[in-house]
Specification:
Helix content is 79%, strand content 0%.
Length: 183
């Protein structure tokens, strides 16, 4: 007998479908067909597609943003924290991040969720830079925005090679920042 899908299974599956096939794969019928599950199974967990999308955005945040921030809170050394952030960020699956942003371009509720996650990520890096480099918040914020724009852009531009290119770009940026602010 086929395994029953729990809510978390639907969300993980949906994120994978979004990453590999794009937003069209999140239509209820397409999702159920791809999962080889009934529409009733889907509606057992979600009121409608909008509720699924809401849950998917929360799942994305809880799976790919909050654990990174929580892990970084455990690291005391500022340079070590920056390296850990780089390591964790460049291990994110770029196809998921690109898929989420593609969906956001078509869906206002997803766009709002992406903006909240972007703000949380940028705020974290801003605080990290202000503390690590002992610079004013405005400058730290601009640096964080620059790094985040490079991070998001690299996921799009180097999608197929991001896991090798991303760490190199991050290391180069961190070296430049250290040379500017720590020497």
């Amino acid at each position: 007998m086929a395994k029953r899908f729990k809510k978390s299974d639907w969300l993980a599956f949906g994120l994978g479908e979004l990453a590999s096939k794009g937003p069209e794969a999140l239509r209820v019928k397409e999702l159920c067909t791809a999962a080889d599950k009934t529409v009733g199974s889907f509606y057992h967990h979600f009121e409608d597609q909008a509720a699924f999308i809401d849950a998917l955005m929360e799942y994305w945040h809880e799976t790919f943003t909050q654990p990174v921030i929580n892990a970084l809170e455990e690291v005391d050394d500022a340079q070590e924290r920056a390296q850990e952030l780089s390591d964790l960020a460049t291990k994110l699956d770029p196809s998921i991040e690109v898929g989420i942003r593609h969906l956001a371009s078509q869906n206002a509720q997803v766009q709002q969720a992406v903006e909240r996650v972007d703000r949380q990520r940028i705020d974290y890096v801003t605080h990290m830079y202000a503390t690590r480099f002992e610079i004013e918040a405005d400058k730290a914020s601009l640096l964080a925005q620059l790094e985040y724009a490079a991070f998001v852009g690299a996921q799009h531009v180097f999608k197929e090679h991001y896991t090798t290119v991303g760490p190199k770009l991050s290391d180069l940026l961190q070296s430049a920042l250290e040379a500017k602010f720590l020497d």
